[in-house]
Write a structure and sequence with these properties.
6-stranded mixed β-sheet; alpha+beta; single chain
Length: 387
């Protein structure tokens, strides 16, 4: 086992084009489960392929266990990779697939069989499956065989390139928990690539968010959720995504839907320092607290008699009309157009509420927002204003 370091690592595919990976600096600890996440074209897969030796570096270096492996052949890097498409040999049995790399290294058959059976036990692959061909396996079983092939090599680093993308939704949830538990038991440094931020948040010890080849933030899932450094990270992390709205500044906060949402003193000071007249404000769906619907107060609210039908909302309350309700069982997602008494229309937001008491389509609703739950970003740079 060993840690991994990217030191100013870059990859440029064509002269004059934007780097696919731009001076990446990332320190992955020994035994850590690091997830690289970002949209298509963010550079996450290229960064993984650079570590695997499948892409050359155009600048910087990569280290494994303190050893510079930038110019080392892939077979000599002591890594094992799990691909998106499984890459199993259709003519070989499960056992032969899992032990093939060891056979190429001339590992004695008795040792190969021992490692294959140990990996099969770890992955809950029974002995009967070891004699089957890949075509006789389910998608989840094929994925576990691909992982077993990596495990038997006993590498210093596991590399996983979107290994769950070919599985159905239920199997993805099951398999991602198995991968996370497996990594915890084996303690092998793992670099995992995905475009799915839910996978990233539920699996990684730390998550590195990339966009346009640049590393924007690397932190624990909780830190990314609570303290995103910029608008991109804030909007990318969280499901459903954070609501992002552009709003004019007032003396006390920002004006949305005809009312003022207070901002902390630190945010107002930062906005004044940057001479901003408007901000991009972010509010997560779970931070829009439903207090009234169609003039009837919601049970347990402290709206103080305010209603969605008028009467003057407090400074911390937003009014709107429901355009769509997504019923998810335990909770519901309401798509709401924010509208003020002055006729203002400030866009659409998504709010999470209790599924059994969700208002209906077309109803007027009122939300309470706490100042500490409001994120503020510079509309020009996307940087978060300290709050």
């Amino acid at each position: 086992m060993a840690g991994v370091r990217y030191v100013g690592a870059s990859r440029v595919y064509a002269k004059g084009t934007r780097p696919a990976v731009d001076a990446l600096d990332l320190d992955i600890k020994d035994g850590e489960f690091m997830v690289l996440v970002g949209p298509s074209g963010s550079g996450k897969t290229t960064a993984l392929r650079m570590l695997a030796g499948l892409e050359p570096l155009d600048g910087g270096r990569i280290e494994i266990g303190g050893r510079d492996i930038s110019d080392v052949q892939p077979k000599d890097r002591d890594i094992a990779m799990v691909f998106q498409n499984y890459a199993l040999y259709p003519s070989k049995t499960v056992a032969e697939n899992m032990g093939f790399a060891l056979k190429m290294r001339h590992v004695p058959k008795a040792e190969r069989d021992k490692r294959v059976r140990e990996a099969a036990r770890i992955l809950d692959l029974d002995d009967a499956l070891l004699e089957r061909k890949p075509k006789a396996l389910s998608g989840g079983q094929r994925q576990r065989v691909a992982m077993g092939r990596a495990i038997v090599r006993e590498p210093s680093v596991f590399l996983m390139d979107e290994p769950l993308s070919n599985l159905d939704a239920k199997l993805r949830v099951q398999t991602r928990s198995q991968i996370a538990e497996l990594q915890r038991r084996l303690g092998i440094t793992t670099v995992y690539v995905t475009h799915d931020q839910v996978e990233a948040m539920t699996m990684g010890h730390r998550v590195a968010v990339l966009s346009n080849g640049k590393l924007l933030q690397c932190a624990s899932p909780r830190e990314l959720y609570d303290n995103p450094v910029n608008q991109f990270v804030a909007g990318f992390i969280g499901s459903p995504a954070m609501n992002l709205l552009t709003a004019p500044l007032t003396d006390d906060g920002v004006r949305l839907a005809g009312t003022v949402i207070p901002l902390t003193a630190a945010v107002r000071t930062a906005a004044a320092r940057d001479k901003l007249t408007e901000l991009v404000v972010g509010i997560r769906p779970e931070h829009l607290h439903l207090v009234a619907a169609a003039g009837v107060s919601v049970a347990g609210s402290s709206a103080g008699g305010s209603s969605a039908g008028g009467g003057g909302a407090s400074q911390r309350e937003l009014a709107g009309e429901i355009l769509l309700v997504e019923e998810l069982g335990a909770d519901a997602l309401m798509h709401v157009r924010l509208t003020g008494e002055d006729g203002s229309d400030d866009g659409t937001v998504v709010a999470r509420t209790e599924g059994r008491r969700s208002p209906a389509l077309g109803q007027r609703v009122l939300f309470r927002v706490q100042p500490d739950d409001v994120f503020a970003f510079n509309p020009e740079t996307g940087a978060r204003l300290a709050g």
